[in-house]
Every structure is written in structure tokens, then in C-alpha cells.
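2024-03-11 09:14:02 DEBUG pipeline.ingest accepted 1 chain
2024-03-11 09:14:02 DEBUG pipeline.ingest length=400
2024-03-11 09:14:03 DEBUG pipeline.predict start
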Amino acid sequence: MAAGRISKRVGSIAPSATLAVTNKAKALRAAGQPVVGFGAGEPDFPTPDYIVEAAVAACRDPKNHRYGPAGGDPALKAAIAAKTQRDSGYSVDPAQVVVTNGGKHAVYNAIAGVVDPGDEVLIPTPYWTTYPEPVRLAGGVPVPVETDIQRGFRASLEQLEAARTPRTKALIFVSPSNPSGAVYPKSEIEAIGQWANQHGIWVLTDEIYEHLVYDDAEFHSMPTLVPELADRCIVLNGVAKTYAMTGWRVGWLIAPPDMAKALGSLQSHQTSNVAMVSQMAALAAVAGDLVAVQRMREAFDRRRRTMHAMLSTMPGVECLMPEGAFYAFPSFEGVIGKTIRGTVIDSTLTLADVMLEEAKVAFVPGEAFGSPGYARFSFALGDDDLGDGLQRVGDLLAEA
């Protein structure tokens, strides 16, 4: 390949490991292989009927065949503001909302608006694979703040302070967490928000799993708990997880007025508006009730308990009970160094390859999330597949 054919900026981007695993599993299934995939970061439920019907009606309305405002339809922005007040107690003006092409677009835009070359962004591990890449694209420096199973996958205030330098510009905060399932308690969220405010650090708080919490865990929005942070806080959210709408591509960010205006201008040159039919479907979702997500949460809760119980009995595996989202993040440290069917397991990357080849089970290794030795298992799949897949994992590990 000729030198300089692909820009260094784009050539340095790591592909999404989660999508890569999901696509590989789909390809093997299409070829007739009995693969069970634990890689998907999406609910296995259809979008609720009333949302689909709203989209059908929107298709028939010629106004939705045209361009809309780059930053989002006014009715949807107003509904998002109302939904935010209802669900997290955070009062915002619709002008602070920018509707984006999914959650990833919201992350990209927020980082583009905050980060200058050389700025450092604190990102607790394990992190969603997408977080570091837009930081690098903006010329910033992702700074991992390492957590582990002993810490409950939660970054402490002491760790964040130790990682802070004069170049620290922002913190990416997520609770409930993808991939760990960790949920920060109210007191820790308050302390982190006050710390960020004290030091003039932006917080990008990803709340897309807000409605998927279990047992005694509770979701809390940082700018609600720490109102003085609102001027340096961007909330990221979307309809994908709550309403099983991953393919509709509607997310949003909520930012201080000047930042929201700037990011709306960015989007006007970048993508313009999100597809109007998708926006009308999202309007029906956020303006409606939460009955559908309550049903999904009941199913996820059942699968969560099954997954935790099965993983916890496997040799060399340690697994915390997930408190939120729809992932378990077990440690396979006890498997590293062992041999399975002639292959020395020197990492969870190798383990993932062996599992796919020998057991026809796909999962995302922890290296993709900045946490080698771990792996993400989604429980957003049918009960029978979940049980079958985990049985295969346990049987193969028993050979080590």
C-alpha cells in the first residue's frame, strides 16, 4: 500500500471488537455452524408495536420525507427534555438537546466538542470499546483508570485524583456500566461529581442503561446529584437499550446551552438530521410509558441470575453478580496458563479463539475493554441459547 494512502488519523482507529465478534458469529451461523453468540450489545426483543406503528404513520406523512433541523425535531427534543425530568429529575431546556445518529454519534460529538489536541480524558476500565477512539481522533489522550473485580469495577475518588494532571480535560463516566454491569452508589457518584466540579473537569456521563438495574441497585444521574456540575456536564443517552431500538439509530446528548449550540452546528456539516421516520418512532418511545422495558428487565434479570450461577461454578472463573445493563464480566485469570485441546491459553484473546473454534461459542475478550484476563458475556439472548452456550463453555474449561 502506498505511504499516506490512508490518513494516520483514520488508519489508527481500532475496529469495534464487539461488532467484530457479533459479525463473525453471524457468519459462522450462516454457514451452518451451531454458534451461540454472547457478543451482542442489543436486546433480543423486537421494538414494541406502538413504536413501529408510529413509524409506519410517519412514513405516510410527506413532511417526514424532507430534511429536518440538524439538531433534532423540536417535538422530539421537547419530549426528551420531559423524559429526562421524569426519569432522572434533571431539568433541562429542549434547546440543550441534540438528537444524534445513535449513541456512538453522541459520544463522538461530545468528545469533539470538549477535547483539544493534548487534552487528557480519564476513562475507567473496563470501558466500552468506542470511548477511547474519538478521544484519539480529537488529538486527545485516553487515560485508563484501572479497576478490577476486587474493586467491583468502580473507580475510586483516590484513583481518579491520582490520574489527574494539569492536562486532564474530561472524565467519561458510565453507570450502569457496559461491559461490567457495575452500578455506582449515590454517595460515590456525588463525590466524583463534586471532585470534577472542584477541578473544572468536564464529565461525559453515559446513561443509556438507566432503566436496566436489578435488586437493590439504583440509577442516579450525576448532574441531578451535583447541580453545580451542569455547566461542565454532557449527558449521553438514546432509545436503543430501553426500547429495543438499536437499529433505528436515535441517540442524543444534553449539554450546556453554548455547547449544545456548537454541537448542533457541527452536526449540520457532519450528518445533518437523523432520519425523520426514526425520530418519530423515538418520539413515540420517549413520550410513552416504560411498560415494555419493565418486561424486558424481568427477562434480563432471570437470565442474569442463570448466567452468574453457571459462570461461578466453572473452574478458574470468578464472576460478580451484575447490578445493571445486560452483561456479566467474569475473570478468567484462573484459566490463563492452562492448556485446552493442545492450545496454551496465554490470554483471553486466545481463550476466545479456542472457544469459538472448539465449542462454537462467541464472546468478547477483555482486551477489547482495556481489561485483559476478563471477558464480556451478554445475557441479551434467549434462555435456551444462554444455557446451552454456557454449558459448552463449562465443559471445555473442565478439560483444562
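2024-03-11 09:14:41 DEBUG pipeline.report The chain has two domains: 8-46+292-397, 63-287.
2024-03-11 09:14:41 DEBUG pipeline.predict end
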